[in-house]
From TrEMBL:
<dbReference type="GO" id="GO:0005975">
    <property type="term" value="P:carbohydrate metabolic process"/>
</dbReference>
<protein>
    <submittedName>
        <fullName>Peptidoglycan/xylan/chitin deacetylase (PgdA/CDA1 family)</fullName>
    </submittedName>
</protein>
<feature type="compositionally biased region" description="Low complexity">
    <location>
        <begin position="50"/>
        <end position="64"/>
    </location>
</feature>
<dbReference type="Pfam" id="PF01522">
    <property type="entry name" value="Polysacc_deac_1"/>
</dbReference>
<dbReference type="InterPro" id="IPR011330">
    <property type="entry name" value="Glyco_hydro/deAcase_b/a-brl"/>
</dbReference>
<feature type="domain" description="NodB homology">
    <location>
        <begin position="108"/>
        <end position="288"/>
    </location>
</feature>
<feature type="region of interest" description="Disordered">
    <location>
        <begin position="28"/>
        <end position="69"/>
    </location>
</feature>
<dbReference type="InterPro" id="IPR050248">
    <property type="entry name" value="Polysacc_deacetylase_ArnD"/>
</dbReference>
<dbReference type="InterPro" id="IPR002509">
    <property type="entry name" value="NODB_dom"/>
</dbReference>
<dbReference type="GO" id="GO:0016810">
    <property type="term" value="F:hydrolase activity, acting on carbon-nitrogen (but not peptide) bonds"/>
</dbReference>
């Protein structure tokens, strides 16, 4: 048949439109067949991860085609608007012996607590010494030092030691700085420690052991137990290695010992601990965190 050019173009256009409609209808049928005829095909449900495992992101990024984005819940730490501390019972005195923290501890235990760090020189030395003698200690850290030396702070926790709150700037006398500053000192250190390590402190020590009703109330408000000491070699005064050693060796079962890794030259403390740790262990005492 001899068709004129305009007629031929209209015929070709009509045939193309018919083919497109047929193809679209076929795709629609296939999609409906996969969903029981109820509409577009649903996305496959991802297989849940085994219990206790970390959620895996889809290949190609968190928004890869065919996979819903994985949302990991944020850890709520001090400083987060949603964080609310669980108050602890308010005490009228600081704990000075492990027996006061409750029953259930093995016999022959003792606790070494270390204040005022982290320090860039002496804290690593003490950590090496503790590792050598397989001793676990409790570090009461100052928030300003945590801010300056976060890597050393994390090393304390990663080595398995306990980390606790010793205020933000170590003001003294602590019990006379006013209720607002007392709360700010405790709150800011709490936040700084938690953000640096992921650990929320459970124990608090007032600088110089300066306690008051306000200090005890704020300590309890933040869910912490106030900690003092039973054995104090006054190593912060640098009285000599021999005097520090003799004082620490007087420690008995259950004692909470006080030493320092910050606030000045602590070489005498390191030297004394090098002698004291093996001798106390040889006596049958076991070092435990609070």
């Amino acid at each position: 048949m001899d068709l004129k050019e305009p007629t031929r173009r209209r015929l070709l256009w009509t045939l193309g439109a018919i083919g497109f409609a047929v193809a679209a209808s076929s795709d629609s049928v296939r999609g409906a067949a996969g969903t029981g005829g109820r509409g577009p095909a649903a996305r496959p449900t991802p297989t849940p991860a085994p219990s206790g495992s970390r959620p895996l992101r889809a290949a190609g990024g968190p928004h890869a085609p065919g996979r819903p984005p994985v949302v990991t819940p944020a850890v709520i730490l001090p400083g987060h608007p949603a964080w609310k501390p669980t108050p602890a019972p308010r005490r009228k005195e600081a704990v000075t012996n492990l027996r006061e923290l409750g029953p259930g501890r093995p016999p022959g235990t003792i606790s070494l607590t270390i204040d005022d760090g982290p320090h860039p020189e002496y804290t690593p030395q003490i950590l090496d010494l503790l590792a050598e003698h397989r001793v676990t200690a409790t570090f009461f850290v100052v928030g300003e030092m945590v801010r300056e030396y976060p890597l050393i702070t994390r090393r304390i926790v990663e080595a398995g030691h306990q980390i606790c709150n010793h205020t933000m700037s170590h003001p003294s006398p602590f019990d006379r700085i006013g209720s607002r500053r007392i709360r700010r000192e405790i709150a800011e250190a709490h936040e700084r420690i938690a953000q640096a390590t992921g650990v929320t402190p459970k124990f608090f020590r007032a600088p110089g052991g300066a306690w008051s009703k306000q200090v005890f109330e704020t300590t309890a408000e933040f869910g912490m137990i106030p900690i003092g000491w039973e054995v104090d070699p006054q190593d912060w005064r640098r009285p000599g290695v021999g005097r520090i050693r003799r004082a620490l060796l007087e420690s008995k079962e259950g004692a909470i010992m006080l030493c320092h890794d910050g606030g000045g030259d602590r070489s005498q403390t390191v030297a004394a601990l090098r002698q004291v740790l093996p001798r106390l262990k040889k006596r049958g005492l076991t070092f435990v965190p609070l």
